[in-house]
Amino acid sequence: MFSPEGPTLRELAAQALSSVERGYDLLAPKFDRTPYRTPDRVLDSVAAALAPLGPFDAGLDLCCGTGAGVDVLTRLCRGRVTGVDFSAGMLDVARERAPSPGPEVSWVRGDARALPFGAEFDLVVSFGAFGHFLPRELPGLFTQVRSVLRPGGSFAFPVAAPPRPGSRGYWALLGFDAAMRVRNALWRPPFVMYYRTFRLGNVGRELSRAGFRADLHALPEFGYRPDGSPRVRMVVARAAGGGTGISRPAAA
């Protein structure tokens, strides 16, 4: 559908009518040839923005998929790097394409809402996975992330500004989310994937409740909107000290 090497419309339909886990098992062999894979431009920008905040030792890619975020961590971490995902199919592809040489990389099958780790990471990243979590799941998700971070550790992820109301992008995302809600109302098991539920204001509140203080970093490679705000930001959350919530430095 997307390219000669990508999934067909029939394959995408089979994925959409499956559970999230089973759907990604089916899509895994062709996932990297779809628009769903985080673009290298985003990965490179986040890696460059995180580099001055290091050095980092152990890193975790949360909901790692085929391992694009692990590639970022291998550039930033001096010690071991881990990818965790609940799709066995995605992990199989990740193992096959793992970078070498570099830090020790391990792949773990697990649910982000019940992470099978102790406080052993200095940096946790995640790319493109938050649409698979309902808003009510964010408190538990962020609490899990904090539980696996060492003191002083960071949780980082990019967030794109929402499309301007009335724009083509706005209606496209609204239509997709509406279609998914209808699908999930009529078909079981549900396939949770929504583009408009991960809102920066709500994210800031839930990070605060989980004990984080977050800073926003503009990713200038993606430009600015007419009001001067960045089109893409990186959130960097650390265990809270004197305050909580999201602060907005001048660059953001």
Give the CATH class of the largest domain.
Answer: Alpha Beta
- At CATH level 3, the topology of the largest domain is Rossmann fold
Rg estimate, integer Å: 18 Å
H and E string: HHHEHEHEEHEHHEEE
Strand content is 15-25%
Distance between the termini: 37 Å
CATH architecture of the largest domain: 3-Layer(aba) Sandwich
**Which residue ranges are poorly predicted, with pLDDT under 50 across at least 5 consecutive positions?**
none
> Number of DSSP strands?
8
Q: What is the count of helical runs?
A: 8
The percent of residues in helical segments reads 25-40%
Main beta-sheet annotation: 8 strands, mixed
Shape: globular
Structural class: alpha/beta
Domain unit count: 2
Give a description of the structure:
- GO terms for molecular function: methyltransferase activity.
- This protein has 252 residues and is an alpha/beta fold.
- It folds into 2 domains: 1-37, no CATH class; 38-162 and 199-247, Rossmann fold (3-Layer(aba) Sandwich), CATH 3.40.50.150.
- The protein is built from 8 helices and 8 strands, in the order H-H-H-E-H-E-H-E-E-H-E-H-H-E-E-E.
- The chain has an 8-stranded mixed sheet with strand order 3-2-1-4-5-7-6-8.
- Strand 1, helix 4 and strand 2 (81-85) form a beta-alpha-beta unit.
- Helix 1 packs antiparallel against helix 2 (20-27), helix 3 packs parallel to helix 4 (68-76) and helix 6 (138-147) crosses helix 8.
Helix and strand arrangement:
Blueprint: H1 9-16, H2 20-27, H3 40-50, E1 59-62, H4 68-76, E2 81-85, H5 88-97, E3 105-109, E4 121-125, H6 138-147, E5 149-160, H7 168-186, H8 200-209, E6 212-218, E7 232-239, E8 245-247
Protein name: Class I SAM-dependent methyltransferase
Keywords: Methyltransferase, S-adenosyl-L-methionine, Transferase
Domain Methyltransferase: 60-153
